[in-house]
Task: structure prediction
Amino acid sequence: MTPRERVITALKHRDTDIVPYQVDFTLEAHRKAAAYYGDERIERHIGNHLSNAMYDIYTATHRDVGDERFQDHFGVVWNRTVDKDIGNVEGLCLPEPTLSGYAFPTVDVEFYREIYRRFVADNPDTFRLGAIGFSLFERAWTLRGMENLLMDMVEQPAFVDELLERICEYNLGAIRVAMEFPIDAVHFGDDWGQQQGTIMGPAMWRRFIKPHLARMYREVKARGLYVSQHSCGDVRELMGDLVDIGLDIFNTFQPEIMEPVWAKREFGDKLTFWGGISTQRVLPFKTPAEVRENVQYMLRTMGQNGGYICAGTHDIPADVPTENLVAMIETLRGQHSGTHSPW
Result:
């Protein structure tokens, strides 16, 4: 099986020869892994099953404005003096609850086409994800500020509706360009959760986020493609809603929040879970032997009957020791030879 075939089989909730897997890195973790394996392009040795256009789009839409600051295509400035991977939002594009005076970007069709031409050519055998990062809530708060946006949901709901509608329209334009190319799914990034519960609460999520999300999902499903959604945090109270509007792949599956046996029992026949190896409690703190045992446990518990892509719960962070990073990679790779078979 190719990596792409393996993921599609898992999405159909059927057993695969090995459990598909993915290892993505922050910059510092990538440096550690590259030093260990002696190759800057270590991804080609890992055997990853997914390719995500989000990284290509992110790089192409952020221009250097000096002093470790980068501006994206919505005008948001990201300060990377501390967080070298994404950065922290600097300033507000929408200091008041109005779109007056703000020029929304338009979808540059040829710009996106060029990104996807290269993306498809560079990833012939993997499961290819088109991508919309900061897709709704995150894009809105990066423009308005999180505290302001949460207050606006209570005090200025018409403004929030208008803002999210404009963001959704932009996303739909970008999605339509992506779907001109032979991709397999569209991946949406949008963090709604905190360690306990959702940031805005389920009622506000259903009022403001869900209708636009459903519209974007419908666009993807109408083309016969899969839908993948990323949200960090505790979004258990939203899982039924996500299934109802057509979600296929849920990322990131955090076991400290969503207990694996429960997740497999409640949603294992409806969703494919992507994640499971904790970047909060396992990879930074356990021994290499414990990391290997944890990876094996997740492969056994989540991988039977498909519906699972084994991965860190986020890009591997800088505080993960090299030996633990290697233990995870080698256990996943060992499935190919049977040296670390979960069965």
